[in-house]
Specification:
The protein has 6 helices and 8 strands; from the N terminus they run H-H-E-E-E-H-E-E-H-E-H-E-E-H. It is α/β, with parallel strands linked by helices. It comes from Nocardioides marmoribigeumensis.
Length: 203
């Protein structure tokens, strides 16, 4: 009996390891389990006065991924987002994001006609909490949802907050710039995008 067990146990161990490997390689996609457009979320979005997702008609190096509009609305093909644009990545679980969201809102309110602002609720499984945070921060710029983290492979996102800078020629880069004040954001927009929003637009 002991000889039989000694022969069988290694085989069972290999089968168990193979099963674990298959499970780790092909996990169930998160995005299929997270609903970001429901009647309840649409109500929350309306109460938070979040702007509708844009009808993007440009071209950029952003990945050709269609992301759902957070809280309902038209989906956005990221590769159609024209520059210059600022695309902050955030989530309801990101403590620092709570400070930065109002700063991006100010950019949207004061210079949205010169630099597009589109938020990405990234790897967030609680869209209701995300909209609640936007309402508390009074951040009303358009938002898409990436609960499955499809941007991770393109930009090797390792932590939040982060931001994708889309230049006028469509080229895009990601970084984890620290933004403490609106002046920081104005300076970064000038450095990364070549847009001086500190100077009023010629009109």
């Amino acid at each position: 009996m002991r000889r039989v067990l000694a022969a069988v146990l290694p085989v069972l161990a290999v089968l168990a390891l193979s099963a674990c490997d298959r499970a780790s390689i092909t996990p169930p996609p998160v995005e299929t389990r997270v609903e970001v457009d429901t009647p309840a979320l649409r109500t929350l979005k309306a109460q938070a006065r979040i702007a509708p997702c844009p009808r993007a008609t440009g071209s950029s190096d952003l990945p050709g991924e269609q992301l759902a509009c957070l809280g309902g609305g038209r989906a956005v093909d990221l590769s159609s987002v024209a520059g210059p644009a600022v695309v902050p990545l955030w989530a309801s679980w990101c403590v620092r994001c709570r400070k930065e969201l109002p700063i991006y809102q100010r950019l949207f309110a004061e210079a949205g006609d010169r630099v597009a602002v589109l938020g990405v609720d990234y790897q967030d499984t609680q869209p209701d909490a995300a909209i609640g945070l936007l309402r508390k921060a009074r951040a009303r710029f358009p938002q898409v949802a990436d609960p499955g983290g499809v941007l991770a492979d393109t930009y090797r996102v390792r932590g939040l907050p982060g931001v994708v800078w889309v230049r006028e020629d469509g080229s895009a880069t990601f970084d984890n710039s620290r933004i403490d004040t609106y002046a920081d954001l104005v300076r970064l927009v000038s450095d990364r995008l070549g847009v001086d929003i500190a100077t009023p637009a010629a009109g």
